[in-house]
Each structure stands twice: as C-alpha cells, then as structure tokens.
Amino acid sequence: MGKPLILGVSASLRNARRGLGNISLIDEIKNLKSKEDLMIFLKQEAEVHLKNFQESGRSDSLPFDIMYANLKKLKGNKGLSNSEVALSSALWSAHSLGCEIDHLSLAEFYSESGVQNEDQILAKLKKADALLISTPVYFGDRSSLGQTFIESIRKNPDWKKAVEGKLYAGLAVGAKRNGGQETTLIYQILDMLNVDMLCVGNDSETTSQYGGTGLAGDIGAMPSDEYGLATTMGTGRRISRVAQALKIGEGYELKGKLKVQFWILQDSEGFALKKIQSLIAGKNIDADIVDLTTKTIHRCLACDICPTHVSTDDEYRCIIKSKKDDLKEIHPSFLDADGVIPVIYSKKDAHSTQSNYQKFLERTRYLRRGDYLLSNTLSAPIVFEEIGAHENMHIRAVTSMIRHHTVLSKPLVGIIQNDQLLNEDEIIDCFDLLLQSCERLMKGKLAMYSQDQDHLKYKPIGYVLSTVKDKEDEKLSRREAMMEERYRRNEKKLSEKIEKT
User: Fold this and answer.
1) Which residue among 140, 235, 290, 495 is buried most deeply as judged by most CB within 10 Å?
2) Looking at the domain 254-495, which fold is it?
3) pLDDT-based confidence at 452, cuts 50/70/90?
4) With DSSP H G I counted as helix, E B as strand and the rest as coil, what are the percentages for the chain, rounded to 5?
5) What is the spatial distance between Cα 498 and Cα 501, in angstroms, rounded to a whole number?
C-alpha cells in the first residue's frame, strides 16, 4: 500500500531553496532525529539566509531589487526563509510519523513572464497524496505566488484532476502575531475546498484551528517563534495522520451504511428540511435529520469547566441542565456519525427565518472540549441561499466546524430564486462526491483501529481551564477509560460497516 506522500509547497519569493536545493532540503529534514535537532537546524539555516541577504547588499543598504537579483544568483542549496522554516518543521513532523515528504518552490517556476516547466509541477501534484502550502501574509491574504498556483489548478483540468479528493493543510507567516495569518488560512481553505480537496487544520495538541501560524517580523526571525512552530508542527502531524488513515482505508470496502447526520440550523417554513429530504431520497445512507430550528437551545455560558467532568462520550456533560433546554435530549444522536452536515437556509427577507445557528454551535463547545468527539468526522455545510441574502453562511460553517477537529469537504451552496433551486444538478453531483469522501474517510478512520500503528489514534489531551481541577489524579484514569470506550465503539463499527478487501 505504501506511505502517503506529503508535498510541501513554498509560496514565497524569498525562498532560499531551489533546484537541487529542494532535494537536499528533504534529505536534511529526514536526517533530523529529534525535535531538538530540528530546532538547531532551523536556527542555523535561518541565520544562513540572513547572512545571504547581508552579503547580497543588505549590509550596504542596496535597493531591495538589486539585493533580490543578487540573491537569485546563489546556488539555492543553503538557508531557509521564514516560510520555509515553517514548512520544514511541518514536513519534519509528517516524516517523523511515517510519511514520505517532498518540496516544491513556486518561485523557481513562476516568473513575470509566466509559468516555466509546468509538467514538473503536474508530476509532483500527481504523485502527492496531500499538499502542505506555506505562504507569507500580504494584506491578510496569501502571496501572489500562492494565488497564481491556485489559479493554475482551477484553470488546468489536468492539475485539478491531480488534486481532487486529496488532502490540504496550510501554514501562514506574518510580521505580527495577529497579522492576518488566520484570514490567509481561511481563504486558502475555501479555495482548496472549491477544487474538491479535503482540508484539515492543525491538530488537537495545538487547539485545532485553521493551520500553522508563524510570527516573523524580520528575515531569519521565524525560529524564535516557539508557539508558531508548535502550530506548524501540529499541522504536519494532522495532515500526516489523516493522509495515513485515508491510505489505510483504501484496503477496505463498505459493508454497512454510512451514518450521515444533518443539522438543520436555520430554515424558513421548512424549506431547507424539504430540500434535504429530497436530496437524500434513494441514497444508500442512514440519514439522521435533526431539525434544530424547532428545539429550545439556551445560550452557552462560556463556563470555566467545560466539559463539567471527564466521562464516556455517551454522557451529556454541559453545565446547562434546564428541563426547558433540548440539548441533553439531542446529545445521544451525536455519537458515531460518519458525517456531520450543517444545513442553513439564507432568505433575503428574514422575517420568517427560524435560526438556532449560533446558539447551537456555541453549545457544541463541550463536544470539542470533551476531547474532540467529532474528531476525523467528515463535515461539509449545505447552504441554500436566496439571491440577495448575502449571509456567507458556508464560510461561517466551515470555520466553525474545522475547530471540531473534523475533516472538511466542499461546501454545497444552492442558489435560490423564487423558491426554486437554480443549480439543483450541481448540488446533486456535489452531494454524491461528498458521500464518496465521507465513505473514504470513514473507512480510514475505522480501519486504523485494526492497524498496529498507535500514533494514528487520537490521544486525549484534556481541555480543562481550571488548573487545580486538572491536577486531580483520577482525571487521567477517567480520560483513559473514556478513550478505551471510544476505541471499543469504533472497533465494533469496524466489524459492522467495513471489510478488508
């Protein structure tokens, strides 16, 4: 079956590595035996990059265009830019967990005159199982190199086919801590979803958000950002584990039905509910439609002990216990879904709209903090949007659901005019692709329990804000018991739903 290949894509004009330097970088990363070795390597290479800048004219205060021209004359086999530091740390994490790694420097192929050697890029895209893109931040967005690369995928059918169904994760390096890294990652996630890739963020050890976020205010500064490097390494681990699960799942076939849960979060006169019922008609899935617009959902209190205690997944552990609140009753349905689909209807005239969207997502906080109950579950919003509504609910749903440690698939956005779905055929086709992705991920998620690869299994880290409470000795044993129950549940599903080919 082989190991998955993670292709690291550097999207900075300041990249130090090109040509044979791409190969030597991969060899150097593979030879690093520990995190301590990695940190020494990153610091040394960043210092080399800074020295190259100084010798190319920075020490003499030469204009940057002349300095840049001097830098391009170098062999490209030494040093690391800030974006390359972030990418190297993520690739090291992926390799340390058993993936093959490769490096692509976009600056080597893109110039003002156009794209050079496109066949070489396509060959790397075809060979890769996952793309890990690292970019500097410009005005809260990715670099023009990164943008041109994404445009090339969208324009070229062969490139688009080469990445369809594969995995993506991103890294962004800015001059400030809140310098647009998250907006850059969000925009890029949406772009990669729209070319039919699956997307993940960073891992649960680094709070499971949108990807790696680096702080580097000057040349050579990235190795000093310990927090940023933790997120980039977490992103490397995340993409590695999901890529390996998908690879393992290729050796299994579906035996039972997919269990797909639909959360109707915003609707008007049952419009979205009816559309979902129509969409799933005739599909060989176990569909669970939860109409949350008809439920009473109280607001999240943002308490400091969420969840209230450590226990097994089947126990409702939110502090809100009011009999008027329906979430406790709904909780059992959250267990064991293979896919979670938020469903939203955005109506231009919101007079008849019923919405529990924000209140419900706030209240799922205890599921996230309860050691990520929805970890590695496929998620993709289905949004029916009336022309002129302008709510952008697919963006909001994507950015919320990725924080549950889910794997994202392309949002489905149905365009509504005069109560008619204008792009019905497109929605049907995209829904079929969504179910295919859900099956692939479900098979991998379950199959990894039959593999002797313990590093693939999600490890509980706890998410408790109270330091005193977290010191209780019994908490660790309870958490271990919780995860053992989760493992047993998945192993049972393994025998029921998939079989080895």
Assistant:
1) 235
2) Rossmann fold (3.40.50)
3) low
4) 50, 20, 35
5) 9
